[in-house]
Design brief:
alpha+beta, Four Helix Bundle (Hemerythrin (Met), subunit A), 2 domains, four-stranded mixed β-sheet, two-stranded antiparallel sheet
Length: about 260
């Protein structure tokens, strides 16, 4: 039986700082947008930049609404539930995003939400339970999911605008690690070593397991390419053809296991 993927721990203070920092980078980028920018298309189907900015606001507003509500009676969800639970909720997320985008200027909405987010988060204990679409989380773990959402959609926004938006290092590391662990959980085994320096190394895929030296099947890529692969923003074939990902060994083609989150 292949080894069970380990459950990674995320430092609560570092995660909070990463979420705040990445939200700050988003706010700075959004503040510079003009009305024409809001109408630009994105790589997310029917969303323009207006909807994308509204969705970034939803990422923070979910924490706000969770902390403003009574705490749920018990924890129901894990980080694995978050990764696998987003796809079935796509229609509801899309509906909520369009509804928020219709409320007004999404740039102003984001600022108001971010201010309330900072106010509530300042004194909220990490073990406080908050509701989400996939179940109740401890706040510390829910902030890990917000970190992932902010990083993934910051990259979407940068692609839509043709601009560079900074990534907080800890936010990028958290997102890389969670999605790498999701691959190890979805394709358990030890035949392939996936390296995403400097943040993550995981083993996955059934088959012979190496015990020493260089493994026979190795995949290596950079964090942003990995995040795009793991979330379906780019295909394995395109990443391999461009040289953004290198793969050696007969089992090192991960196309059948991607994306791990959509």
């Amino acid at each position: 039986m292949p080894p069970r993927p380990r459950t990674r721990a995320y430092a609560p203070d570092a995660t909070r700082a990463a979420v705040r920092a990445q939200l700050g980078h988003v706010r700075a980028a959004v503040a510079a947008l003009d009305p024409a920018d809001l109408a630009a298309p994105t790589r997310l189907g029917g969303w323009t930049v207006r909807e994308l900015v509204a969705h970034l606001g939803m990422v923070a507003r979910s924490v706000v609404s969770g902390l403003e509500q009574p705490a749920p009676p018990r924890q129901e969800a894990s980080l694995a539930d978050y990764v696998t639970g987003t796809a079935p909720l796509a229609a509801a997320i899309d509906e909520g995003t369009h509804a928020l985008a219709a409320e007004g200027d999404p740039r102003e909405l984001l600022e108001r939400i971010a201010a309330r987010f900072a106010e509530l988060l300042a004194n909220a204990p990490g073990d406080r339970l908050v509701p989400s679409r996939v179940g109740a989380f401890r706040l510390d773990e829910y902030l890990v999911t917000r970190c992932v959402e902010l990083v993934v959609h910051t990259d979407d926004l940068a692609a839509a605008l043709g601009a560079e938006i900074p990534f907080d290092r800890q936010a990028l590391a958290t997102t890389t690690r969670l999605l790498a662990d999701a691959l190890a959980a979805a394709a358990p085994g030890g035949a392939v070593e996936v390296r995403v320096p400097p943040f993550a190394v995981v083993q996955c895929v059934e088959g012979p397991r190496h015990t020493r030296g260089t493994p026979p099947n190795v995949v290596e890529t950079d964090p942003l390419t990995w995040i795009r692969l793991a979330t379906g923003r780019t295909s394995w074939a395109d990443a391999a053809a461009s040289g953004a990902v290198t793969a050696s060994g007969e089992r090192a083609d991960l196309a059948a296991y991607l994306p791990v989150m959509s």
